[in-house]
Amino acid sequence: MSGFTISRRTMLAGSAALLASTAMPTIGWAQTPKKGGRLVVAADSEPRNLNPAIVASNGVFFISSKVVETLAEASFDGKDGLQPRLALSWEGAADGLSVTFKLRDGVKWHDGKPFTSADVAFSALQIWKPLQNLGRTVFKDLAAVDTPDELTAVFKFAKPTPFQLIRNALPALSSVVPKHVYETGKIEENPANNAPVGTGPFKFAEYKAGQYYRLQKNTDYWGKDEPWLDEIVYQVLPDRTSAAAALEAEEIQLAAFSAVPLADLDRISKVPGLKVITKGYEGLTYQLVVEINHRRKELADLKVRQAIAHAIDKDFVVKTVFLGYAATATGPVPKNDPQFYTADVPTYAFDVAKANALLDEAGYKKGPDGKRFSLKLLPAPYFNETKQFGDYLRQALAAIGIDAELVNNDSPAHIKAVYTDHAFDLAVGPPVFRGDPAISTTILVQSGIPDGVPFSNQGGYKNEDLDALIAKASETLDTAARTELYKEFQKKVAADLPLINVAEWSFISVARDTVGKIANNPRWAVSNWADTYLAG
Amino acid sequence: MSVLRRFLRTPEAIAGAIILAALFAMALSASLFFPGDPQAIAGPALLPPFQDWGLPLGTDRLGRDVLAELFHGSRTSLAVGLAAAAAALVIGAIVGTLAGFAGGLVDEVLMRITDAFQTVPSFLLALAFVSVVGPSLGVVVVAIALGAWTGPARVARAEVLSIRERDYVAGARVIGMHPLEIAFREVLPNALPPVLALSSVIVAAAILTEAALSFLGLGDPNRVTWGGMIAEGRTVLRTAPFLSVIPGVALVLTVLGVYLAGEGVVETTAVRRSLS
């Protein structure tokens, strides 16, 4: 027992050290890079298909972007906002009919076979174009991929395709998978979809349903001295409130994608040893949007849509629903986009009196019970914030005499109700802006999209002007002219309100302060983490 | 009068009666004290309780008045609890009486159906039903009744089995009454008291099930429910625990009140039976 006596002095020294540790600025503390270690990360969903070439979504990228790499990754300071990954350079022809990629030499697949241009050609033609949720639009005119040598891939397009679009699409849409694994049998049923094989810094090791995914260091990685970590474990924590507790208990070291509820951030930022990071999601902006079913005769009236826009207090939404971790939106392109955003669009200030006047003008007078008409409102269930905004919107509409009935569904039922059955009047959706309006934004207002395509215009909206503008922009090769067209697009959308953009938000990461090189690119959470380390 | 006095003799029954009376008063006076939509935004978000006497229990994440939500939520809880229990008792009594009185094949079929329902946990049944049909108040009531009618059915059958051998039932047969008439006019009313004694348990369970469904997001989103309030508060449990604790306490008190009052009723009737 004599070895365990607490003297006043050691007690004082100990508490002084403790005080000092809390007083020290958390960033820059204990950052001695060290090789090795296991990073344990919270995962809130368990995607079944882990092939990012087929399912280009953040839930899949979060895990598989460490295994399967893209041609290029987004970058804060690289040219055109890109840094090379599997491709070293990319060049578009002046006629917009071809793009040439020079590929990285000496890259090997996890099974030891060499990576060549044939893999790129196979991925592009057999997967991105026909099967990928986003690639179907961007690569729709891709006719062939020539492979003059093992390290050159030339994309040939049937119609002029803007190089700017291809460039902007690279980080999310260009996951390259091995041809030799996928060429036999049906691609959708390939076992590698559940245990991906790639060229990335980590190999897929195992998956235990309901428990964890484990990735292991790829000792043969092309990056010099990379990766730093030995292992990444994705601990499945479906309950969002448990991520914060797990971080505090040091069971996990990182919770990305706002796994820690916004309301908890203020408290958790004061916990010693934890840091709250708002960077690293600049390339993954989510937009809070009110989707409108234009088949309803009331909603087909522009005045009614304007009234709804005036009834929404965007500042309140940002302050209360998002607790300040968001920005108000002006139109279909988020404010943080460096290439396309314009503030020069019609805006709708929060003004209940004006909204009421507009509805009166439109001929929808208040009935004796104070109601003008009733609507069905379907908030998307994917985020707490979309649900809460649904609750808010119901109140905002009640203030202008529109009686909204909330209908809650789970994710599959919501997608079916809104995008296939069109059984909604208003819906709250979180579309993602992916660096170029042509990737996943114009589809929200364009007409003629078949029923059942999720996150597209399923509200029956048709505006020939806008359709023509979108078509023109999709074949305009000159970057400046194309950007101008999309500025025009933003103005028209804000004026005609096929949907109402309310706010834009990104995610927050919370990590232990031993985790280094966090948020060093605009898509950090879904990038390859080759340089991420645990300080010793 | 003497029944009431006997009922009020036990302290549990008095406590239960007081809680229930308070609950009914809350439900009935909700629109009086809090006219308008209880889900309207009334003040700044996440105001703690006892800060602003205009909003004595504070506000939730959107700035809605917690006290108003609590009052209006008591309506949903009571409405669902009573309606589901009534539905369960009616279905159970009918099925039990038919099975017990008819006997033979009808009894076998009805009781096997009852067995089938009993083997499925009632909460799972409710969960499945609401997810398929879609959440609304009526559906929630049916979903809860679906899992709760088996108890009354079994009790009713057991009672009917003993009653149908009584002389007055034989007498009714002799004077040529229709069997269904005998079952429902002569037998059922006499078999009812022990079935009704189950009602307090069913009401309490129904209130809890409704809260659990709302907690899982399967309640009617257009109504305030205590379960829904707890679920919403859960996301801010560490920073604003009162949002979950207040409706949670209300729920506990309600279930306790219903149970205590029910116990009191059972005891009163038991005393009366033993006296007679």
From TrEMBL, chain A:
Belongs to the bacterial solute-binding protein 5 family. The keyword Signal applies. GO terms for cellular component: ATP-binding cassette (ABC) transporter complex; outer membrane-bounded periplasmic space. Keywords: Signal. Its main location: periplasm. One of its GO terms (biological process) is peptide transport. One of its GO terms (molecular function) is peptide transmembrane transporter activity. It comes from Mesorhizobium waimense. Residues 82-429 form the Solute-binding protein family domain. It is found in: Periplasm. The lineage of its organism: Bacteria, Pseudomonadati, Pseudomonadota, Alphaproteobacteria, Hyphomicrobiales. It holds the Pfam family SBP_bac_5. This is ABC transporter substrate-binding protein. PROSITE patterns: SBP_BACTERIAL_5, TAT. SUPFAM superfamilies: Periplasmic binding protein-like II. Residues 1-30 form the signal peptide.
TrEMBL record, chain B:
It is a multi-pass membrane protein. This is ABC transporter permease. GO terms for cellular component: plasma membrane. It is found in: Cell membrane. Belongs to the binding-protein-dependent transport system permease family. PROSITE patterns: ABC_TM1 (PS50928). The keyword DNA-binding does not apply. Keywords: Cell membrane, Membrane, Peptide transport, Protein transport, Transmembrane, Transmembrane helix, Transport. The chain crosses the membrane at residues 78-102, 123-149, 195-219, 240-262. Residues 74-262 form the ABC transmembrane type-1 domain. Its main location: membrane. InterPro entries: BP-dependent_transpt_permease (IPR050366), MetI-like (IPR000515), MetI-like_sf (IPR035906). One of its GO terms (biological process) is transmembrane transport.
